[in-house]
């Protein structure tokens, strides 16, 4: 069974139908990139998988946890799948280490000492072991995003959702974050990422999803999607991207 | 005719100023506690609670404090409840203070970026945990300067209680004037004492604002 099962998902904001029946299964260990124009619904889809948006129709299951709008179900879902945001969203009043420790202690009731050990391991993993006591505003954007990744990993999720995680970064900081993501992929982490980094998607992802007007328009391995786009919409979209 | 030295006047005013200070503290602390309880309802999930607090705030912000004092003093008397001036003054000021503090604090809670809610939710935290560990610690930093600043309004608000006969600084000013026939000297001193109470509060509000901002320069 797939780790993430998205079935006939529909979502509307007021009169606008943003997702018009999405079907997508993500296998354990798979790395899936979601590409598409802004407004195509790709971020909304990702946010639904984590329960930050509720769906109007269809179902989303992650490793047996279903998206249902109450605190208990949402918590169960969110323990299975972590999320990383475009704007990092670190807690500014806590040091990097405390950022990583907080949810372990509060949500999982992990004792402080274990949570700290885990935080140090995870910060080490993203190359920031020496920044344990630094506050978010003392870190560069790339470092903040890596702390955010460490924070999500410390909850030991089965999958990570990455919502344009390099879009708010200066160009020279993009690579340090992508390198971390690449390592996660190599370690077998299941990843769903909305991205504009076409080269990265091509290199690292197992499958690429092209969304257009609230639907999965094309889907396939990167060689196919990038090398041999079947629809004019995808061709036009890729034509507008300079990198590929 | 008796003569009064400046010291006589000042001494009597300072004695009365104690009651201004006490009433200010009672109003501010009581209003603060009530404000917290109201804030809990105001930003909570229950619609009835939010509506109630909104109505409460509109009522107390939309009527003069003087009317509220009259209502507390004379209104309860209509029901045969004998309300001493100090109780009516304290009660009205507490209710009035709470109505302003709850709105100041609501603004502070809402000023915390939406991403903070989303990030803490995505880590599995529930509403109460988000509030306690993520939102309120940030909101409190924002709230300290305006809250201290508002305390100045409370101190000045206590002057109105002289009208229902509570003997604090302003009332004492009137009494002393009636005895000395030196209104300019007396009210000049009254104003100076108010200023001596309020200025340190305004100043510390400014200093706190700068301090808390420095700790948080990029956010």
UniProtKB/TrEMBL annotation, chain B:
It is a multi-pass membrane protein. GO terms for cellular component: ATP-binding cassette (ABC) transporter complex. SUPFAM superfamilies: MetI-like. It comes from the Bacteria. One of its GO terms (molecular function) is transmembrane transporter activity. Residues 17-205 form the ABC transmembrane type-1 domain. One of its GO terms (biological process) is amino acid transport. Coiled coil: none annotated. Keywords: Cell membrane, Membrane, Plasmid, Transmembrane, Transmembrane helix, Transport. PROSITE patterns: ABC_TM1. It is found in: Cell inner membrane; Cell membrane. It holds the Pfam family BPD_transp_1. The chain crosses the membrane at residues 20-41, 62-79, 85-105, 139-164, 184-202. Belongs to the binding-protein-dependent transport system permease family. HisMQ subfamily. This is Amino acid ABC transporter permease. It comes from Azospirillum brasilense.
